[in-house]
Each structure stands twice: as structure tokens, then as C-alpha cells.
Amino acid sequence: MIGQYPFTIFNFHSDRGGKTINYQVAYLLQRLLIKQTKSRSGHCNDNALVETKNGSVIRKNMGWQHINQNLADQVNAYYRSFFNPYFNYHRPCGFPTIAVDEKGKRHKVYKTYQVPHEALKKIPDARKYLKSGVTFDQLDTIAYQHSDNEFVQPRL
């Protein structure tokens, strides 16, 4: 899965709960020199973004059922060939800006909606975040191979 990301991963955030920390993942991250941060215990809102994304994206697509181990290869193929490219290159996401009201309270305001691929390209000096050997021309080829509507059409 890490190989599917076109950029260098330097941080991985996870829930602090003992039931959710996967020690194999923690070992892999340590071996790859990827920093792992964890939510603060007793602060249930720390994972609000993750839980929202989990509910609005993953659960709507995959459901709540247990996925049998003998289906893992098929699920991985689905994520690799459809789900991940769709979300990275064809599904707009909201990107917040922080607005401060007259009382000094900070609010997130969502005015910018774009696909993650386009958002990544707009980061100043974005090329330095790409993995070695990956270019925006390569990513653009993937992104513009199909229109957003064409990508979601059933393929035979």
C-alpha cells in the first residue's frame, strides 16, 4: 500500500486505543523511518477527521461487514485499480481555511474543493515531496486518462 503513494510519507497518525494499534504496522513504520503520532488519550475529538472520513468514505463504499481473509486479494485489487485512483484523481475534497471571528474564535471555512492530486500540485515547491522517480507528468497522465464521469462508468 505504501508503494501506491506518489509522495514520501514522513508521518502516520493513529488512534491511541490499545485495540487499534497494530504492532506490525508500528514495526514497519519504525523500519521505514516514518514517525508515528497517536491521539491524546481522553480527547475523543482528536480522531474526528479520521472517523468522519472513515464513515463518509470507507464505510459507505465497503460497508460494516467483516471482510473474509480469502477475499483480501480481491479487495486489494479493487482499492488499487479503482478506489484509490478515484479518490486521489477524481473525487473533490474540501480543504479548510481558518477564519477568526470578532471574538477571536477560530472556525474552519470550506471554500476550496478540489481533488487531492490538484491540491498537491498547488503546494509551493511540491516536487520536493514526491518520491524519487515520480513526476507530476506521470501523475497527470493517470489523472487525465479519464474524465471524472468516465472513470466511474462501469467497465467491461
Question: Could you describe the 3D structure shown?
Answer:
The protein is α+β, with helices and mostly antiparallel strands and 156 residues long. It folds into 2 domains: 1-46, no CATH class; 78-151, no CATH class. It has 6 helices and 4 strands, in the order βαβααββααα. It has helices at residues 23-31, 48-62, 72-89, 116-122, 136-143, 148-151; strands spanning 11-14, 35-38, 93-100, 106-114. The strands form 2 sheets. It has a two-stranded parallel ribbon with strand order 1-2. Strand 3 and strand 4 (106-114) form a beta hairpin. It is globular and about 55 Å long. It starts with 10 loop residues before the first strand and ends in a 5-residue tail after the last helix. The model has no long low-confidence stretch (mean pLDDT 84).
SSE order, as H and E?
EHEHHEEHHH
Number of folding domains? 2
Number of strands: 4
Give the overall pLDDT as a whole number: 84
Measured by DSSP, the beta-strand proportion falls in 15-25%
Unreliable runs, pLDDT <50, ≥5 residues?
A: none
Strand order of the largest sheet: 1-2
Rounded to the nearest angstrom, the radius of gyration is 18 Å
Please give the count of helices: 6
- Biggest sheet record: 2 strands, parallel
Percent range of helical residues: 25-40%
What's the overall geometry? globular
Structural class: alpha+beta
